[in-house]
Write a structure and sequence with these properties.
CATH architecture of the domain at 112-301: Orthogonal Bundle
CATH superfamily of the domain at 112-301: MetI-like
Largest sheet: none
Radius of gyration: 26 Å
Low-confidence stretches: 339-344
Shape: globular
Order of helices and strands: HHHHHHHHHHHHHH
Strand content: under 5%
CATH topology of the domain at 112-301: MetI-like fold
Helix content: over 70%
Length: about 350
């Protein structure tokens, strides 16, 4: 009796702890978002498949070339199972995705998981570098601009931001190549050095593409953060209270206004992730980076539907997960936020 009672009490404590964890607002938020993401991801794959099927040409014709005879094209289509009805091919691919099999590339025959595993790290590193570059310059410039609205720094940041937002990132990428790889040959124009071959070479190969992607983001983030900081410094009660207590202007700006502005900045970064990923497709092509964006363009040119669908699904999952992480970080920045309590 004496040995069973403590064990029973421990079991009850564990069960109560699990019940409290399952009732937590964060877990309910994750559950709702994941449930809503399933039809979204399915719709993305279906729309991608439909678009690929209405495009002119065929993968067999693209692989064999323009000189291939109709008999050769039909034979290759039969070997690749491209002669089956579209809904059959989509259903078989969807069944494979559910079981973790993304299929094999039509063009190369390689497993799609192998292709993604080789290409994805390059794109992830490029995206992270672009985000770091943009935010590293956004925060100090926005703080200095908001400290003295309509001052010299504020006006310069306005001109810089408007200029950056007016130039397409692929045009800016070409300008960077001309300036820093042709006129002043200090950085490589094309190619990628893996991190395993040296940190310095890896960073040098990513500086120009990261700036090409991150500069428009920096311009947008700077104007957004500056405007939010100025609005809070002028009208929020907690700012007035802090100033009345004798707190210095820089301390009010950084410790009070900036902390609250992080919510809006975090939301914008999460929402812009899809645009950021789309920019990598063009930038990787310009700088000849062997990333997922370059592979996507090659797969589209080859009518490699299996690879295209897998990459589009992967990018959709990344965007969904990024937005979910953004929502969860709200609760980390401000513990007073509890998702789902009112809606539950």
């Amino acid at each position: 009796m004496s040995t069973s009672t403590p064990a029973l009490g421990a079991d009850r404590r564990v069960s109560h702890g699990l019940a409290r964890a399952l009732r937590s607002p964060s877990l309910r938020l994750i559950g709702r978002r994941l449930a809503a993401a399933i039809p979204v991801l399915w719709g993305v794959t279906l729309l991608t498949f439909l678009v690929l099927n209405i495009m002119p040409g065929s993968a067999a014709q693209q692989l064999l070339g323009a000189d291939a005879t109709p008999e050769q094209v039909r034979q290759l289509e039969a070997e690749l199972n491209l002669d089956q009805p579209a809904w059959v091919r989509y259903w078989e691919w969807l069944q494979g995705v559910v079981t973790g099999d993304l299929g094999n590339s039509i063009a190369s025959g390689q497993p799609v998981t192998t292709i993604i595993g080789q290409r994805l790290p390059v794109s992830v590193e490029l995206v992270l570098c672009a985000i770091i570059v943009s935010l590293a310059f956004t925060v100090p410039l926005a703080l200095m601009a908001a400290r003295r609205p309509n001052g010299i720094v504020d006006r310069l940041s306005m001109v810089l931001s408007m200029t950056g937002l007016s130039i397409a990132n692929y045009v800016f990428a070409l300008v960077l190549v001309v300036v820093f790889a042709v006129i002043f040959p200090v950085l490589p124009a094309i190619g990628f050095v893996p991190l395993s071959d040296g940190l310095l070479g890896n960073l040098r190969s990513l500086i120009l593409p990261a700036i090409a992607i991150g500069f428009p983001l920096f311009c947008f983030y700077t104007r957004f953060l500056r405007g939010d900081l100025v609005e809070q410094m002028r009208g929020e009660d907690y700012v007035v209270t802090a100033k009345a207590k004798g707190v210095g202007p820089w301390r009010v700006l950084i410790r009070h206004a900036f902390r609250n502005s992080l919510f809006g900045l975090l939301t914008i970064v999460g929402l812009n992730l899809g645009t950021l990923i789309g920019a990598t497709v063009i930038i990787e092509q310009i700088f000849a980076l062997p990333g997922i964006g370059q592979e996507l363009l090659q797969a589209i040119n080859n009518r490699d539907a299996v690879v295209v669908q897998a990459i589009v699904l992967l990018l959709a999952v990344v965007v969904v997960v990024a937005n979910l992480i953004t929502d969860l970080l709200y609760a980390v920045l401000d513990p007073r936020i509890r998702y789902g309590q009112r809606s539950a």
